[in-house]
């Protein structure tokens, strides 16, 4: 009888624990809706996604999260910080999701959950306009090339450097804006960043910068980032659904054309990244 009672007690406790976990799993989405605010972390030196123009935070991310906010029925609260602090702050609960965006990689997928891709992220080189010493990616061998600190672009540049006869002199920057300034001043020979970013920068500063084609990195995509736990699953599910709706009704393509001059053919999800 005692064993039977103990078994019933254990089953009851397990049921209650499961119910508590299920209730807690919905807390993040419920908390966001109750507060009426979705907190989004990002850096503001990654044009055209997130950057400061005339003192105002602007970019594709600002426009796209405004649409996501409409779908979820909440306002967007931005939290800006340097890129190398974004992921630790996400895990510390400083905000609900990361804009960025970040390149979807195998390593990141092990730890984080990504939204549907918002753009292609394949890496290429930005050079000074008129620099005839760099006409193809392989020409950066032995040259000083800037890249963002703690980025997937840094990993790709280092990997590409190993294939060249002379390794690239890699210069890491806290923000890509600083690397562009050094490139304009002639302190480095190029900047390695994703094609949408450098194409935008080159279009904004014609006569100063040029894009070196073709891209040299493996084909990749950008996505927004959230935590990969049960607590955040309902929130990430809701964000995913909102983004797929925005993609299906044409709003995503309109925003891509606004910020990149063209739309991207992106998959609804990236489950097996190239790297």
Please summarize what this structure is.
The protein is 41% helix and 24% strand.
Q: Could you explain how this protein is built, in words?
A:
The relative contact order is 0.18. Strands 1, 5, 6, 7, 8 and 14 form a 6-stranded mixed β-sheet that branches. A 5-stranded mixed β-sheet has the order 11-10-12-9-13, with helices on both faces. The chain has a 3-stranded antiparallel β-sheet with strand order 2-3-4. It folds into 2 domains: 12-120 and 221-260, 3-Layer(aba) Sandwich (D-Maltodextrin-Binding Protein, domain 2); 123-212, D-Maltodextrin-Binding Protein, domain 2 (3-Layer(aba) Sandwich). Mean pLDDT is 91; it is low at 1-25. It has helices spanning 2-25, 27-35, 60-72, 86-91, 106-111, 152-161, 176-184, 195-204, 233-248, 251-260, and strands at residues 37-42, 45-46, 50-53, 56-58, 75-80, 97-103, 112-114, 119-120, 123-128, 144-148, 169-173, 190-194, 209-212, 221-227. Helix content is 41%, strand content 24%. The chain has 275 residues and is α/β, with parallel strands linked by helices. It contains 10 helices and 14 strands. The N and C termini lie far apart (58 Å).
